[in-house]
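Lecture notes, unit on binding sites. The following record was shown on slide 14. It pairs a sequence with D-MYO-inositol-1-phosphate.
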Amino acid sequence: MTEIGFIKCFLEDNIGYARAKFADRASLTVTSKANASDLLTEVDLTLQKRAVDQIRATFPGDEIVAEEGEFSRMPASPNARCWVMDPIDGTNNFVRGMFPVFAISLAFAIHGRTVAAGMAYPGTGDIYLAEEGKGAFVNETRLLVSQVQQVAESRVDLDFGGVEDRNAWMERAQSLFRQSGQVRCHGSAVAAIGQVASGDLDAFVHMTLNPWDYAAGMLVVEEAGGVCSRLDGKTLKLFDGKDGVLITNGAIHKEIIRLIRR
Ligand code: IPD
Ligand code: CA
Ligand code: CA
């Protein structure tokens, strides 16, 4: 089985489970991790365990990096064959049910670069897939970023993240906040990055992100014609999102970098 074939099957097999659990969220088992807003559910753990078991059976020896438990670390060798997973991104939305913006993200990387990626959105039923050099698709439709040329006309997801991130936002991004045409914060990096790929958003900005939050999304956006970098404009590597993540349609990328303070 190819890596993209595995990703597609996994997401197709599990999107219904996540959707059913969201519909029945009143009976979820929920605990908190680092703080009261950092939530963990049985669904995060179940999806991650299913993926780990299936990857080990299908691709023995591959490394696995994922958000929960012992997998929440960088790979031993950054060049190795490595799977990167966020079982549920937007867990807070998932638990509180404010609106069904959450996603499952699964990527396959080699030499520290994502080469196959998938993101599933149980709220809409959409599955986004991309392979390096082969384009990005939502279901069977090709994804293309927007043509918006100026920040003043753009719709951007400024993802405020945790409390430390919000302090960084106050110090570094007030100009961007003021000058963007429309501002959103969906509370799911994977959902917002997907919206950049589809052209519904023009940019996504985050002060610090973990690899599982953008491993799949960065390839999907690049294959849809967009651009990914750190906040200083330098190359965004898969395992260094601590330097911030900027994902755009390409046209407004440099303008946003100029608006973010170093
Ligand atoms: C979070 C979401 C959120 C972002 C946080 C992430 P989680 O992921 O993507 O939008 O601001 O930094 O941790 O915890 O819901 O998987
Ligand atoms: Ca996440
Ligand atoms: Ca998560």
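Take-home: The two ends are 45 Å apart (CA to CA).
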